[in-house]
Amino acid sequence: MSSNSRAFTIELFYDGGCPLCSREVRFLKRRNSNGLIRFTDIDAPGFTPDADGPGLDVLMARIHARLPDGTWVEGVEVFRRLYTAIGFGPLVALTRLPGIVQLLDWSYALFARHRRGLFGRCTVETCGPSRATQV
Fold it and tell me: Mean of the pLDDT values across residues 82-101?
């Protein structure tokens, strides 16, 4: 039975074309023995965002996840929920400490803003004309 057919606590929407993102997803999939995480590659051919959810450009700009009740979460909170699902709850608790929260939020926002440029995935639409990858 695949992890996509079991009951889940969080559905991760990730960019399968991003090398760092893919590496993280491989790690999560190996640890997802309980099937609590559902994985959806937003870079896969044929992926179409749900009409009632974020559009593709929004999904690509920051990490997003959907809970079984349809609630969307984004940013560092997604990682907290993913790592809780794979049994790293005590580590996740540390990320909620004063000062750590702000540092993680700031660091992730910086990474998300520059992620495409770091991995050579810029286009005029995503990074502007001066940083776009020449094809």
Answer: 95
Please give the average per-residue pLDDT across 91-96, as a whole number.
94
* This prediction's pTM: 0.81
User: What count of other Cβ atoms lies within 10 Å of the Cβ of residue 33?
Assistant: 10
The pLDDT of residue 63 is 95
> Rounded to an integer, what distance in angstroms lies between the CA atom of residue 123 and that of residue 37?
31
Bridge partners for 66 per DSSP? 11, 72
Q: How many residues does the chain have?
A: 135
Outline where DSSP puts E strands in 21-95: 37-41, 64-66, 72-74
- On whether the CB atoms of residues 56 and 62 are closer than 8 A, the answer is no
